[in-house]
Write a sequence for this structure.
């Protein structure tokens, strides 16, 4: 008997697998996935505002004197959608020699102050506070959108308003973030700052115009730049004189975050 191997009993033929109704419909659901993604992209931004994901940004010190810090990824795509949808733009006001005017070739862009109780606005204000060492929320002005259409400009200026009849605002720092940019040659230029980019790391050319000696920062959606408008002796730093260049084509929307001392 030891020389004969007894074959195992034959098992019954395997029955075909029984798929649950959910699994049977899986190919159909998979086929609808592209359509679902398209529909999601058209959802109103306000419906996305409560499901914002944490973001991670990185920084590069662009200049030490005056202090200018470049921030990559300061605003998320979802945040930018919300900001663009809630801005009620009006012609920008300009203060020159203590006179406030909305009609001045010095500044032809439009602006919109944002409601401070908006979830996204609160979130961005908190991020700006954290970035600056947890600056007091009471020191932050209302966030302001600024929009440039083709040919619109904001000529060289500094942000502190020391002679504004509505009340002085020292604006110790500015964070300027790009919400939208469908334009060309529409950067932010600092006419008093010069760089020889041939002597700098070529990675900078991703963020600035390396073919320009005058510091000109590209308008890249989601990225931002921070600068300190006052020097260590408490005087206005004219190195922070800057201009919003006129788009040759398209539109640029930026976000101003001003923090008082």
């Amino acid at each position: 008997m030891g020389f004969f191997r007894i074959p195992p009993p034959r098992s019954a033929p395997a029955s075909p697998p029984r798929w649950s109704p959910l699994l049977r419909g899986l190919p159909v659901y998979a086929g609808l996935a592209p359509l679902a993604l398209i529909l999601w992209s058209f959802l109103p931004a306000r419906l996305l505002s409560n499901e914002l994901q944490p973001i991670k940004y990185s920084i590069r010190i662009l200049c030490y004197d005056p202090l200018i810090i470049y921030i990559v990824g300061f605003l998320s795509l979802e945040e930018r959608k919300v900001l663009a949808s809630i801005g009620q733009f009006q012609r920008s006001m300009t203060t020159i020699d203590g006179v406030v005017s909305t009609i001045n070739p010095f500044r032809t862009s439009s602006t919109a102050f944002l409601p401070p109780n908006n979830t996204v606005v609160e979130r961005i204000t908190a991020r700006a506070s954290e970035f600056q060492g947890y600056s007091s929320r009471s020191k932050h002005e209302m966030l302001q959108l600024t929009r440039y259409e083709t040919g619109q400009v904001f000529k060289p200026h500094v942000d502190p308003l020391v002679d504004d009849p509505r009340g002085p605002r020292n604006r110790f720092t500015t964070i300027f973030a790009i919400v939208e940019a469908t334009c060309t040659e529409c950067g932010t230029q600092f006419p008093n700052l010069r760089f020889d980019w041939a002597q700098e790391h070529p990675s900078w050319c991703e963020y600035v115009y390396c073919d320009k000696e005058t510091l000109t920062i590209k308008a890249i959606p989601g990225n931002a730049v921070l600068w300190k408008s006052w020097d260590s002796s408490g005087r206005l730093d004219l190195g922070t004189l800057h201009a919003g260049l006129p788009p040759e084509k398209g539109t640029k929307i930026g976000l101003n975050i001003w923090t008082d001392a």
Notes: Confidence is low (pLDDT under 50) at residues 1-30, 45-49. The chain is about 20% helix and 25% strand.
